[in-house]
Design brief:
The chain is of the alpha/beta class and 255 residues long. It has a single domain (29-55, 70-224), classed as P-loop containing nucleotide triphosphate hydrolases (Rossmann fold, 3-Layer(aba) Sandwich), CATH 3.40.50.300. The chain has 9 helices and 12 strands. The chain has helices spanning 43-50, 73-79, 95-100, 115-127, 143-156, 173-185, 199-205, 223-226, 229-236, and strands at 5-14, 17-27, 31-36, 61-63, 66-67, 80-83, 161-165, 191-195, 208-213, 216-221, 240-245, 248-253. Strands 6-7-8-3-9-10 form a 6-stranded mixed beta sheet, sandwiched between helices. Strands 2-1-4-5 form a 4-stranded antiparallel beta sheet, covered by helices on one side. It has a two-stranded antiparallel ribbon with strand order 11-12. Strand 9 (208-213) and strand 10 (216-221) form a beta hairpin. It is globular and about 55 Å long. The termini are far apart. The model has no long low-confidence stretch (mean pLDDT 95). Bound molecules: adenosine-5'-triphosphate and magnesium ion. Magnesium ion binds next to helix 1.
Length: 255
């Protein structure tokens, strides 16, 4: 099976400083991937290279066998949706209209929205539990409510790839779980890549975990393989205890 996303030895620097130091990865449909690692290790930089917010070098990021840098932004938006780490919307848009923007990549230049668009937008908003906010202005939402709006927009975009950069950072525990469940449920025929910090949620939800440190992959694989005391010590410099219950792993810091 060909990977939907193939990253070949990606290197990326801001100014002189090398942040990604040669990362090679493949992402296949049907899997929920998590990227973990300490602050500043390059997670967002990697996500931005995949979403073309930053420009990777030629021949380093391939989506559906096409070099990302040869793809037009509309073509990318049809296949890839992104929920960024920091969301700022300063305009007084209605929540409904912001989610509807997810449909733009599927529309021709002067084509209006149709019932199919309205249907997918409503369903996406219901999944993210924000239908009740449809007439509110996005500037009047809490951080967590806004995060759910942007997630609904990503769902409405109806893409094969969804990138989530700390999508649960503003969410309460109930919504953190519900939110990850939404994306886990739809990952059968998609690639979901989430940057997450909560190692327990990562262990519960991920099919594959990519552990980064200083712009390099330290380990990659299922929770059993990656979430070890040794790896966590190496990457976060903390001691943890790991408990197994019913095939699930729970990680508790020793303080
Ligand atoms: N626009 C920029 N210009 C210069 N340096 C940057 C820029 N953005 C990020 N960096 C630096 O690149 C490094 C990696 O940043 P990145 O945002 O990828 O980290 P991260 O792993 O996502 O961290 P966090 O967990 O804090 O979100 C950091 O040292 C950061 O200071
Ligand atoms: Mg980040």
């Amino acid at each position: 099976m060909k990977s939907l996303i193939h990253i070949d030895n990606i290197k990326f620097s801001y100014d002189e400083k090398e942040i990604l130091k040669g990362i090679t990865l493949n992402f296949n449909k049907g899997k929920f991937y998590s990227i973990i690692g300490p602050n500043g290790c390059g997670k967002t930089t990697l996500i931005k290279n995949i979403s073309s917010l930053l420009s990777p070098n030629k021949n380093t990021v391939f989506i559906d066998n096409k070099d990302l840098i040869s793809m037009k932004s509309k073509e990318i938006a049809k296949i890839l949706a992104s929920v960024p780490q920091n969301i700022h919307i300063n305009y007084e848009f209605k929540v409904y209209d912001v989610v509807m923007m997810g449909r733009v990549p599927h529309k021709g230049r002067f084509e209006g929205y149709n019932n199919e668009d309205r249907d997918i937008v409503k369903k996406s908003m219901e999944k993210a539990d924000i239908w009740k906010f449809r007439d509110k202005l996005v500037t009047e939402l809490s951080g967590g409510e806004l995060q759910r709006v942007i997630a609904a927009r990503a769902l409405a975009q109806d893409t094969d790839i969804i990138l989530l950069d700390e999508p649960t950072s503003h969410l309460d525990l109930q919504y953190q779980i519900e939110f990850l469940k939404i994306f886990k449920d739809i990952c059968n025929d998609k690639v979901i890549i989430a940057v997450l910090h909560d190692l327990n949620l990562v262990s519960l939800f991920s099919d594959e975990i990519i552990m980064l440190k200083d712009g390099e992959i330290i380990d990659i694989g299922e929770a059993d393989k990656v979430m070890t005391r040794e790896n966590i010590k190496k990457v976060y410099n903390i001691d943890v205890e790991i408990y197994n219950d019913n095939n699930k792993r729970y990680i508790l810091p020793i303080i």
